[in-house]
From TrEMBL:
It comes from Olleya sediminilitoris. This is Uncharacterized protein. It comes from the Bacteria.
Length: 96
């Protein structure tokens, strides 16, 4: 009982002290090979341009890793990925 309560308390602290960002990326496939990975949109109303740029670069790195996942592969076409990044508020402020 006590461990469950502590785990729940830690999870709530994490939610209070963190921010979640949604970033949309596109992976273009041609003959089952990745042709291009593009950043579509960083959803953040209060981010500076530099913070959006840093979040976008991180999302592109994550999308590059996701291209190898069999559920994301296509024969031909564009796979749209929604990538969620969660940062603590202090780490987010350090993105200046």
């Amino acid at each position: 009982m006590l461990t469950f309560s502590l785990a729940k308390l830690k999870a709530q602290d994490y939610k209070k002290d963190s921010l979640q960002f949604k970033i949309i990326t596109n992976i273009k496939y041609n003959s089952s090979q990745v042709e291009d990975i593009k950043l579509k949109k960083v959803m953040c109303d209060y981010c500076t341009d530099n913070q959006k740029k840093q979040l976008g670069l991180q999302a592109l790195k994550l999308a590059a890793l996701e291209q190898y996942d069999p559920k994301n592969k296509l024969e031909n076409g564009i796979k749209i990925l929604s990538i969620y990044i969660r940062l603590s508020k202090t780490d987010f402020l350090a993105l200046k």
